[in-house]
Specification:
Layout lengths: L1 H14 L4 H13 L3 E2 H8 L3 H13 L3 E4 L8 E4 L3 H26 L9 H22 L2 H5 L3
Antiparallel strand pairs: 1-3, 2-3
């Protein structure tokens, strides 16, 4: 069952544009509920230790996993952050913020009809930027939890 769960999480991550291995690592750590070493994760997933190492660092940056200390060993062990909603909300917010910045840069480069964009198209682009900004703000305020009365 855990293999199927790990594969499912990897596929979901891929559909969202995330690294399949990173999502599988998270799924493995989450379902196990106990810290695992890089070697254990490598064996479980059947991928290279380098691939595990690179992706576990990405998960640390996302605050989806954290390094934990284990008495009597020098190996690094990792545990999954259990607040999945916070991880997803943060990742979505960061992704939208990056795309919002790209749109903003594009709109600024087209200011005044430069680049074949007329004033009507520029106005539409500015509207898209504003709606994207509203979505990012919605995610930052943890409105999902607020809607559920948390």
């Amino acid at each position: 069952m855990s293999d199927e769960f790990v594969e499912l999480i990897g596929n979901i991550g891929t559909s969202l544009g995330l690294s399949k291995v990173a999502c599988q690592l998270y799924g493995l750590l989450f379902i196990r509920g106990e810290p695992l070493s890089l070697d254990q994760m490598t064996d479980e997933l059947g991928v290279s230790k380098g691939n595990v190492s690179v992706n576990i660092r990405a998960l640390e940056r996302w605050e989806a996993v954290r390094k934990v200390w284990r008495k009597g060993t020098r190996k690094d062990y990792y545990r999954a952050e259990e607040d999945i909603e916070r991880i997803i909300t943060t990742r979505l917010s960061e992704g939208l913020s990056k795309r919002l910045e790209m749109i903003r840069d594009y709109v600024e480069s087209c200011d005044g009809g430069v680049g074949g964009v007329n004033s009507e198209q520029l106005q539409k682009l500015e509207g898209y930027v504003e709606r994207a900004r509203m979505l990012v703000e919605f995610l930052r305020q943890d409105s999902i939890g607020a809607m559920r009365g948390e």
